[in-house]
Amino acid sequence: MRRTSFLLKACLPLMLLGAADAQTLLPLDSRPATRVLPALIGGLRGDALRVPEAALLGTATRGADAAALGAWLDAQPRTGPLIVSLDALAYGGLVQSRTSPLSAPEALARLEPLRTWTERTGQPVYAFVTLPREPDATDRARNLEVVRAVIGWAREGRLKELDVTWDDALPGSPAPQEGAALAQGAPANVRVYPGADEVLSMLTARALAPEAATVRVEYSDPAAAQQVMKYEGIPLTQSAANHAQGSGFQVVDGKADLTLFVFNGGDPRRAALRVSTLLRAGRVAVADVAQVNLGNPRFWADLRTLRQHANLQALAAWGTPGNNLGTALAHAKLARGADPVRQDALLAREFANDVIYSSEVRAQLRKLIPEAQLNSPQAQATLMRLAGEFFPLRVGDTYTLGEAALPWGRSFEWDFTLDQQP
């Protein structure tokens, strides 16, 4: 029997120490989806990652200290690729990128070390920056000026790759039009598409798994996949293609290295049976996008009944369609050749977060504890009680719930550890 995996209990402290040839990951902010998940995906093949402590990164109410974050970055060994959120370094995080009072020259001054990073270290920079969402953005002209400047850095080869993404584009948002204008004439190493929280996971996959790979995308409801999505302003089919390419896959119609099954509605039992059939033929990842921020309980219950959830290359159901597509594909890209203990543990974490918490626990927690009281000891005890009812969790191995918390004091996300049973 495998020993308790260090992936879920001790991986992050190890990543903070890093190794001489490790990559450096500077997350968008301190949320588990943007800090923990990209690091765990990046560690699947045994790579060490240097990641700042959560306290150094931004939250919903407090931006990262630019000087402290810059000092942390400056202290990292100049080995391995740098994967970085420009919004974290320039503004303090995703939330702050919408409302920061900084001028464009001030924001670019904070990013100046990245402009010369490759020249000084010989190591590549994989970066991303967002176009802010409406109506929160207070200075779109400033953000656009910064984006245009860093596209220029990519054109000069100072950034190996740059992803320009837009966040939560509700109807009427100018971001899709801004993105289309920026894409015209952008160099080949710049991608422009809707996304945010998933992008660092995708950049990590591109940096650590540069080998060619193909993916075929299948939808539970092909007709619905042609419709424009609420949060991205493009059809689901286009988003899947964007995220596949952004994770390092070539999309094909025939035989492929991976099948991405996208559950976007329809009969969940039929969908689960289809996934089971696909798994008999090859590698499969699943992105559940039928609803935003939660998985379909019946679909995942049927997959568990069929004992197929443990055979997936990756699963995602936690966020927007783009969030789920991107993290599932990034995980699947690095799952080939992954350490089997780390792979099983990451699948367990994804199931615990995307299915158990997002689909079951969150709604119960909201019924019992008002959102404004989620920082209380009562909320913590309630969270542990509610979540604990769904464990032990069997994926390949069996896991029990260790610790759990609400890091941003809200019900949207939790952070937790899992212990692998002997």
Summarize this, please?
It comes from Deinococcus soli (ex Cha et al. 2016). Keywords: Signal. The strands form three sheets. The chain has a six-stranded parallel sheet, sandwiched between helices. The chain has a five-stranded parallel sheet with strand order 8-7-9-10-11, with helices on both faces. Strands 12-13-14 form a three-stranded antiparallel sheet.
Question: What are the salient characteristics of this protein?
Answer:
DUF4127 family protein, disordered N terminus, Rossmann fold, 6-stranded parallel beta sheet, DUF4127, 5-stranded parallel beta sheet, 422 residues, alpha/beta
Q: Let me know the average pLDDT.
A: 93
- Given as residue ranges, the uncertain stretches (5+ residues, pLDDT < 50) are 1-20
Tertiary shape: globular
Rg computed from alpha carbons, rounded to a whole number of angstroms: 20 Å
Question: Residue share in helices?
Answer: 40-55%
- Helix/strand class: alpha/beta
Indicate the proportion of strand residues. 15-25%
Secondary structure: number of strands:
14
The termini sit apart by 6 Å
How many helices? The count is 17
Largest beta sheet, briefly? 6 strands, parallel
Count of folded domains: 3
Strand order of the largest sheet: 2-1-3-4-5-6
